[in-house]
Amino acid sequence: MHLICEEGWEEHGGKSYKFLTSKASWEDSRSFCRDLGGDLVKIDSREEQEFLLERIKSKINDDEHVFWIGLTDSETEGTWLWVDGSPLDESFWIGGEPNNGVGLFGLRENCVALKRLELQSWNDQPCSSPARRICEISL
After folding, report:
1. pTM for this entry
2. Stretch 92-113: mean pLDDT, rounded?
3. 8 Å CB contact between 123 and 21
4. How far lies 33's CA from each of 102, 105, 125, 136, in Å?
5. Burial classification of residue 107, based on how many CB atoms lie within 10 Å of its CB (0-12 exposed, 13-18 middle, 19 or more buried)
6. Which of 16, 37, 59, 79 has the highest Cβ tally under 10 A?
7. How far is the CA of 42 from the CAs of 16, 54, 61, in angstroms?
8. 32-42 in b/e burial notation, b at 16+ Cβ within 10 A?
9. How far is CA 89 from the centre of its chain?
10. Which phi and psi angles does 48 have, rounded to 5°?
11. Which CATH architecture has domain 11-138?
12. Where do the structural domains in the chain lie, given as residue ranges?
């Protein structure tokens, strides 16, 4: 049986992705992805990270390329878990990140976004800050 992505989704490596340019908090973004039958993206490899960055570059024509991914340490500070409960294995942090820096209004940085259009692009930031999102469904 061969499954294909629904319209508006892009297939790659046995997964289907939807890039959403409207902005929302991490929790609202996750709820939206779950309502679509998926979740925020879980990045399992360098190859997947590179694919996502290339797709973002092809879709976004402005400097607003911050996208939520499905990684958080909101349960235990410093213990990064994917939305499926699995621990972080391979990572692509920007140098000096994660730093749990105190963000806007003194909020801790417990959620992760792709923030740069380069391999080392992950940044922890407050979960309530608005960002675009990438939803994922396994095929």
Report:
1. 0.90
2. 84
3. no
4. 27, 27, 19, 8
5. middle
6. 16
7. 12, 16, 24
8. bbeebebbbbb
9. 15
10. -65, -40
11. Roll (3.10)
12. 11-138
Residue 80's pLDDT band (cuts 50, 70, 90): very high
The reported pLDDT for the residue numbered 76 is: 93
Q: What is the DSSP string of 18-53?
A: EEEEEEE-HHHHHHHHHHTTSEE----SHHHHHHHH
Closest CA to 113 of 105, 128, 125: 125
Distance, CA of 18 to CA of 52 (rounded, Å): 10
**Which is nearest to 93 in space by CA: 133, 136, 124?**
124
Joined tokens for residue 91:
């990572």
* C-alpha to C-alpha distances, 30 to 51, 102, 110, nearest whole angstrom: 21, 22, 14
